[in-house]
Amino acid sequence: MSGAALAGTQDFVDQARVWRHRYGGMLFQQWPAALSAMHGLDTVLPKLGAQVAHAKVVAEAMGLPEPHTHQFAFHLPGDPARLTELSGKFLGSFWQDGSLAKTEVTVAGPAMEWTADEVREAWAEFQSLL
Question: Is 108 in contact with 70 (CB distance < 8 Å)?
């Protein structure tokens, strides 16, 4: 929620100092960050075990290695924009990562309701478009 570094000429840094204050920089307390973290411990942490377990179901249905968290990344050959267009809401956005396209999958929220069969079907449909 907070924290940044700014590098540049002395003149640039001096001008930025005014805007840092105007945009809410220079917090004298970390209560906003601590409050956000405490909220996450109460609301996100209890769901994490189920999300990790379901990420394993999703990855297996896609024929991917078992993930260790509820998020995993994978690479495909091809144009990232085209893969994003083809995947729709199933996989989200791809971007260039070296010579391959990369995307990251987060198994949370609505993804928790997908069955292994639904994932297999969506994955097969996506692959048929490639």
Answer: yes
